[in-house]
Specification:
The protein has about 325 residues and is mainly beta. Helices cover about 5% and strands about 50% of the residues.
Length: about 325
């Protein structure tokens, strides 16, 4: 018998719907089996006009490879790929309107500056300094506590549909948030103060035979999906789309990656330890690039505490508003 075909949807079709109707052609009276990502979905019999249709085919997030086969044979259609785009939450940068923060690292994993480029290695964005942290999107508080030795103090929010964020390396968690486990909060709710809790926020070096541990104050903003780390690459925060480009050595070996963000024709790159200072300032609903007043930030702050302090002061000073 002739091979069946999938007539609708077309290859490359994108949708945000959870189900879709699949229509095709096949030899009249023959049983057609529809597969999605090599897993059988449903059987249907081609009618007298050699047509068949399956309604409400469930779609997974991402690519769905659809294939129709005549039952009991290897006679099959061409593969049709349908992409289900799962809308992400409307994230905002986790600081107050009118303030500015340095984007000093990421996307990367917590405590990992040079990881292989897997999803869990590109799940975090670092913003340096000590400042008040606010929820990037509305959701339900999952936990507000000491996470672990590496992460330190943190807050986790469930934004629904499998999306979540974690705010770690906090110096202080809001007492109100600690009492709100399981309760919903709106976007922009005060969560705590960024800092350097957890070993991932500290750097140890030897100076004149003495071991010195330096605190690198920052917020690690981690994206989560269905309980696991989720890459920031391709996601949007305050209108900026996050990217990551692998950096290779002369021999072609993978060395690291360079983060960047784009919004229209604008483009910025991460400032790894302030080597190329970049700040993002939020004014009203617009987040824009701001020039850095800290000339010393073009040095590695690990060299001395004066430079580190300068980098951590950011555009707005270390003075924090009264407690919320």
């Amino acid at each position: 018998p002739p091979a069946p075909s999938i007539e609708s949807p077309e290859d490359g079709f994108e949708t945000t719907e959870e189900t879709i109707a699949v229509k095709g052609k096949g030899h009249a009276g023959y049983s057609i089996v529809l597969f999605r990502n090599d897993v059988e979905v449903q059987k249907v019999t081609a009618d007298g006009n050699s047509k068949w249709e399956i309604s409400n085919v469930p779609l997974l997030a991402g690519d769905n490879r659809l294939l129709a086969k005549i039952e009991g044979t290897d006679v099959k259609s061409k593969i049709v790929v349908v992409k289900r785009k799962v809308p992400q939450p409307d994230f905002k940068f986790p600081w107050a309107e009118g303030e500015a923060r340095y984007w000093t690292g990421g996307p990367h994993a917590r405590g990992c500056g040079s990881c292989v480029m897997t999803a869990d290695a590109l799940s975090g964005l670092d913003f340096s300094g000590r400042w008040k942290v606010y929820a990037a999107a509305s959701g339900t508080i999952v936990r507000a506590e000491w996470f672990d030795k590496t992460s330190g103090k943190g807050v986790e929010i469930d934004h629904g549909d499998g999306w979540g964020t974690q705010y770690i390396r906090l110096e202080e968690i809001s007492p109100k948030i600690k009492e709100m486990k399981g309760k919903w909060i709106p976007k922009g709710t005060y969560l705590g103060i960024s800092g350097c809790s957890g070993s991932g926020a500290k750097r140890t070096k030897i100076v004149e035979g003495k071991v010195i541990t330096q605190c690198i104050q920052h917020l690690h903003l981690e994206l989560r999906r269905n309980g696991s780390p989720e890459t920031w690459v391709g996601k949007v925060i305050d209108g900026w789309t996050v990217h990551a480009m692998g950096i290779k050595g002369q021999e072609g070996e993978f060395l690291n990656y360079q983060g960047s963000m784009t919004r229209g024709e604008e483009s910025i790159k991460e400032a790894e330890w302030c080597n190329t200072p970049i700040a993002l300032v939020t004014i009203g609903e617009q987040t824009r690039v701001a020039d850095s007043p800290h000339k010393k930030c073009n040095q590695d702050p690990s060299q001395n505490n004066e430079v580190s302090s300068s980098c951590n002061q950011l555009i707005s000073s270390n003075r924090l508003p009264e407690n919320e």
